[in-house]
Design goal:
Layout: E1 6-11, H1 17-29, E2 33-38, H2 40-45, H3 48-55, H4 71-78, E3 81-87, H5 89-96, H6 103-110, E4 115-119, H7 123-127, H8 129-140, E5 144-145, E6 149-152, E7 158-162, H9 166-178, E8 191-197, E9 201-202, E10 208-209, H10 216-227, E11 231-237, E12 247-252, H11 255-266, E13 271-274, E14 281-283, E15 303-305, H12 309-316, E16 322-329, H13 337-348, E17 352-357, E18 368-375, E19 380-387, H14 388-403
Parallel strand pairs: 1-2, 1-3, 3-4, 4-5, 8-11, 8-13, 11-12, 13-16, 16-17
Antiparallel strand pairs: 6-7, 9-10, 14-15, 17-18, 18-19
Bound molecules: cytidine-5'-triphosphate.
Cytidine-5'-triphosphate (CTP) is lined by residues 255, 274, 276, 278, 280, 306, 308-310, 325-327.
């Protein structure tokens, strides 16, 4: 058995500490060796027993316990990844200034692996110039500092300050373990639009023609873009997943609706990624009442073509805008899946085309994806099968290079 990746989960003293318990569970269940290092404040919210039971390890809480093993150095040195969730304003300040006044800050100073900080605090604290400066310092050193999510805070108030969803934090942690440099801040100040999911074309009020796209790849693209600093909008066609942290989601149903919403939003975007599976045809007529089975043999369904959104985007694109298409392909007698992708890029004219082989349980409704990203300039980047966030990171690497 290969060694399990070693993750140190630092937990600072904020109410969101209880959500870190779910993060521990998600990481241990996906084969990570998790050591929890709570601060003294964190232990006032969630006790040592919870962390020990969920991680399956004793919990190191102070630099003096087991001093013969020098835990303040060993833990950080041996880690493959350090995550701090929640990272409070106080923790960010201590980390930015290199303080070493408790075990967690010692770990942060000794770790040479990627560090992911997930802040959670009240909006005023996040917006305070002192916190802004600390975050800028940490980001400048290559520490990944996420923006907190917007929503309900501890009291009756709402605003920016919530801990990003633990499932998203687990996905980003796995991404950093697979690709330590996957989350640079290179999309800061950029606006990106991602379409996700699969459209549904109504036959009557109850039935539709749809496809198997779950929206996972589009949501992974949105999550990674937000973590890289972009302002992200997602046009989501029938996606049954929680909104990706940091993105604004615009729900749509049909191809026509997706086209209208996407084209309207695209005018202000630096990049548009068409990850949605958009129907090429729709029933010519959507019955306004339910089609009944009585009445003998069903009438054949007449189909008409839908508009090609990618082509419309390319026709309307503003100078410098990067447009990315997706193509799920199978091989046939004429050509293999990749060759079909190359022909599609030549035909459609996007800047980048992500080609995935599909069929046999590949790509749809599963967490992993792989393929080849083809560029209009002839470049081809192979992405081995892995988390959808890893494919997303490659797409954003190529987009960011074209935006520069
Ligand atoms: N697409 C689109 N509008 C459509 C159909 C597809 O914008 N009506 C986009 C998809 O989001 C994807 C790209 O075009 O980014 C390629 O989709 P695909 O269905 O593979 O392309 P088609 O040109 O429809 O080719 P095929 O004949 O293989 O279906």
């Amino acid at each position: 058995m290969t060694e399990r990746p070693r993750v140190i989960l630092g937990v600072a003293g904020g109410i969101a500490a209880y959500k870190a318990a779910e993060l521990v569970r998600r990481l241990t269940e996906t084969g990570h060796d998790v050591r929890v290092v709570p601060t003294e404040g964190a232990l006032r919210f969630v006790g040592e027993a919870t962390w020990a039971a969920l991680s399956g390890h004793p919990v190191a809480t102070d630099v003096w316990a087991g001093a013969h093993e020098v835990p303040h150095v060993r833990l950080g040195r041996e880690a493959d990844l350090v995550v701090v969730a929640p990272a409070t304003a106080d923790l960010l300040a201590r980390a930015a200034h290199g303080l070493a006044d408790d075990l967690l800050t010692n770990v942060l100073l000794t770790a040479r692996c990627p560090v992911l900080l997930a802040p959670a605090m009240h909006t005023e604290m996040w917006e305070h110039p002192a916190t802004r400066a600390n975050v800028a310092t940490l980001r400048g050193r290559g520490t990944v500092v996420l923006d907190p999510a917007v929503g309900r805070l501890t009291g009756a108030d709402t605003g920016r300050g919530r801990l990003p969803d633990p499932a998203d934090l687990a996905d980003l942690a796995r991404l950093l373990l697979a690709r330590p440099a996957a989350l640079p801040r290179d999309l800061a100040g950029r606006r990106v639009l991602v379409t996700a999911g699969g459209t549904r074309e109504p036959l009557d009020p109850v039935r539709f023609i749809g496809n198997r796209s779950s929206g996972r790849q589009g949501y992974a693209l949105a999550l990674v873009a937000a973590a890289r600093g972009a302002e992200v909008t997602v046009v989501a066609a029938n996606v049954a997943l929680p909104d990706p942290s940091g993105a604004t989601v615009l729900p749509v149903t049909s191809a026509a609706e997706l086209r209208d919403v996407t084209l309207a939003a695209a005018a202000d975007e630096d990049a548009v990624v068409m990850a949605a599976a958009v129907a090429d045809f729709r029933p010519a007529l959507a019955e306004s009442v339910k089609i009944k089975k009585s009445g003998g043999a069903p009438a054949p369904v007449e189909l008409v073509a839908t508009a090609d959104v990618l082509s419309d985007l390319l026709a309307a694109r503003r100078p410098g805008q990067v447009v990315v298409g997706f193509a799920a392909e199978t091989g046939d007698a004429e050509a293999d899946w990749l060759e079909h992708g190359r022909r599609k890029l030549a035909r459609k004219g996007a800047d980048l085309l992500v080609v995935n082989p599909v069929g046999d349980g590949l790509a749809f409704e599963v967490p992993d994806n792989g393929g080849v990203v083809l560029a209009a300039d002839g470049g081809e980047v192979e992405v081995p099968t892995g988390p959808k966030t890893a494919l997303a990171a490659t797409v954003w690497d190529l987009v960011a290079a074209r935006l520069r």
